[in-house]
Amino acid sequence: MRIAVAMSGGVDSSVAAALLKEEGHEVFGLTMRQYDAKKSGYGENEGIEADIKDAEAVCNVLEIEHFVVDLQEDFKAIVEKNFIEEYSSGRTPNPCVLCNPTIKFGKFMEAAFKLGAEKIATGHYIKIKEENGQFKIFTPEDAAKDQTYMIWKLNQQQLSKTLFPISKYKKPEIRKIAADIKLPIHSKTDSQEICFIKDHYENFLKDHIIFKPGEITLPNGKTIGKHRGLALYTIGQRKGINTPWKCPLFVLKLDVENNKLVVTENPDDLLADVFELEEVNWISGERPDDMSGISIQIRYNSGPVPVKKVQENGNLLSIELERSTRAITPGQSGVFYKDNLLLGGGIIK
Question: Catalytic positions, please?
Fold first, then answer.
């Protein structure tokens, strides 16, 4: 089978390519140039340009072809635009969640097929299985590297054309494989979450958003200071609230209409057990008949929380949790699981 491996220049995708070649497939590397490194604050040999060189070096070692596809315009029009709009509206987006279905498993996949690929493969820590004509997603062996949270927007057609070769391995094993076959990136550190931003996201947003200072208030309406611009804060944030106070303060709400940052002294104020999801997608293509025993994960680095009740409310999905959880943040993803099976998800409203 002719397979295009999404080569990021990192150890995971490099080993994915090596494993598939060892299995006897006709493998080639395909690297996506999705942003301008210099405009993102990187030096000449940093960021995506360095990643492209690393991917090319790995392909030379593996003796496979390497191609680069330029998706900067699509990435800017879809991912970066959404990132700016969401922060402008007082929400906290996860750009990877949008990039995966539209760019990596969308435009990138199309480019791979034009180069003769029958499927694409990535270095994600995700387990995929076909059962009775349905492609199902499960958490990988290495729970600490689980990336299923990021792909809840994918559909059956995309999954039918995708392989995740490293899902049965743990990260130390991947690094050992890379070292054993003398890949030049075997000790390369993992990339940061937001690829197109080198430093703090403030440096990116300031070129696209006018930060409007406003009042910092307590829940009772008392003004206690000034904020630098709502886009610089997110629900649950403690650091960066630069106003003198007798105890730590936490961001409770971004009042965009009145340009006020509402903070609280009591972290328990951040607890909630009811919220809504929009843009809901089910991996199977439709909502599962049996929703008993499901849980939902509300941010990438948190564990799933048991769900008590799910109810459709027009285009929204109302969620009631078994127990309150902290800092449910608009713009982030709520992702459903049943044991280690990914069911789908939505955007927190």
Answer: 99, 195
